[in-house]
C-alpha cells in the first residue's frame, strides 16, 4: 500500500477498515477519546484474531491525538452519519494535513459535494461507501465530487485495489446505488410484518431460502442499525415504517444494542 493511511473514527466501519488495511501495511486509527481508543484497539485485535490473520496488531496504531495523523497521505473519515459532525471533523483534519493528502468520507447517504466543500479541499476529496462487515464485503461505492482532480481519482482507485476491494464509481445522489435500491425492499419487509403479524424469523427464513439471500431483510436492518436505517430511509425519501420508529424509541437499535427485530 503506497499511501500512509489514517482512519478517523472508532465504530464498526472504522475498525473494520483498520483491520482490512492492516493486511497491506501500517494504519493509524484516530478515536475521539482515550476510552474510545481502548475499545477500538480491542475490537481491531478481536477482528484480526477471528480472521486468523497473520498480521501484527501493532500495524494498527490507535490514537486519540489528532496531531498523530498529520503525516498521513490518505485520511478516511468514518464517524456518525450526521452532516454537521462529519463536516466539522473534515475541516479539522484539513488544517492538519499536507496539501497533497486526500480526505475521504464513508458516508452512505449524505451529499459528497457538500462534504467536499466542508472539507476545504474539494479537489482532494472522495466519498468511499464501504459496507459492513468491511473485512468481508468487497464493494466500495466511489463518489467523486466534480472538483476532484486526476491524481485523487487515480490514487483512490489504487487504494481500493490495495485493500482488495472492487470500486464502482456511482453518482452523487441520496443512497447512491445500493441503499437506493436496497432500503425500499428492506422497509417493505417491515410493512409485511405490520400487515400480517408474521414472526420476523419466518420472514427472514423465507428470503434466505426462497431468494438465496445470505441474510434476511430484518436481520440485515438489525446489522445496519435501526437508527442508521431510519436516517438512510429519510435521506432517500423512503417513509420509515412505524415498527422501526417504535423500536428506536424503545432503545432497540439492532445488534449493537442487543435487540432489534431479533435478540442478540
The main β sheet shows up as: 8 strands, mixed
| Percent of residues in beta strands | 5-15%
Question: How many DSSP-defined strands?
Answer: 8
Distance between the termini: 37 Å
Q: Structural class, judged by helices and strands? A: alpha/beta
Low-confidence stretches: none
Number of helices: 10
Global mean pLDDT: 94
Order of helices and strands: EHEHEEHEHEEHEHHHHH
Fraction of residues in helix: 40-55%
CA gyration radius, whole angstroms: 19 Å
- What gross morphology would you assign? globular
Strand order across the largest sheet: 3-2-1-4-5-6-7-8
Brief summary:
The protein is of the alpha/beta class and 264 residues long. 45% of the residues lie in helices and 13% in strands.
Amino acid at each position: 500500500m503506497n499511501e500512509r493511511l489514517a482512519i478517523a473514527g472508532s465504530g464498526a466501519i472504522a475498525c473494520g477498515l483498520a483491520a482490512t488495511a492492516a493486511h497491506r501495511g501500517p494504519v493509524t486509527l484516530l478515536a475521539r477519546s482515550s476510552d474510545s481508543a481502548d475499545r477500538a484497539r480491542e475490537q481491531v485485535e478481536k477482528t484480526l484474531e477471528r480472521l486468523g490473520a497473520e498480521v501484527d496488531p501493532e500495524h494498527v496504531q490507535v490514537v486519540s491525538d489528532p496531531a498523530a495523523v498529520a503525516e498521513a497521505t490518505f485520511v478516511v473519515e468514518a464517524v456518525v452519519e450526521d452532516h454537521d459532525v462529519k463536516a466539522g471533523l473534515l475541516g479539522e483534519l484539513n488544517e492538519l494535513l499536507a496539501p497533497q493528502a486526500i480526505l475521504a468520507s464513508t458516508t452512505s447517504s449524505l451529499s459528497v459535494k457538500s462534504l467536499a466543500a466542508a472539507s476545504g479541499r474539494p479537489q482532494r476529496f472522495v466519498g468511499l461507501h464501504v459496507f459492513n462487515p468491511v473485512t468481508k464485503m468487497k464493494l466500495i461505492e466511489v463518489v467523486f465530487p466534480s472538483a476532484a482532480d486526476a491524481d485523487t481519482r487515480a490514487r483512490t482507485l489504487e487504494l481500493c485495489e490495495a485493500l482488495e476491494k472492487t470500486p464502482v464509481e456511482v453518482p452523487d445522489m441520496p443512497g447512491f446505488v445500493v441503499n437506493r435500491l436496497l432500503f425500499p425492499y428492506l422497509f417493505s419487509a417491515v410493512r409485511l410484518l405490520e400487515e400480517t403479524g408474521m414472526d420476523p424469523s419466518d420472514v427472514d427464513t423465507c428470503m434466505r431460502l426462497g431468494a438465496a439471500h445470505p441474510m434476511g431483510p430484518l436481520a440485515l436492518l438489525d446489522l445496519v442499525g435501526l437508527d442508521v436505517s431510519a436516517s438512510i430511509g429519510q435521506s432517500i425519501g423512503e417513509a420509515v415504517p412505524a415498527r422501526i420508529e417504535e423500536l428506536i424509541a424503545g432503545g432497540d437499535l439492532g445488534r449493537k444494542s442487543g435487540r432489534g427485530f431479533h435478540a442478540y
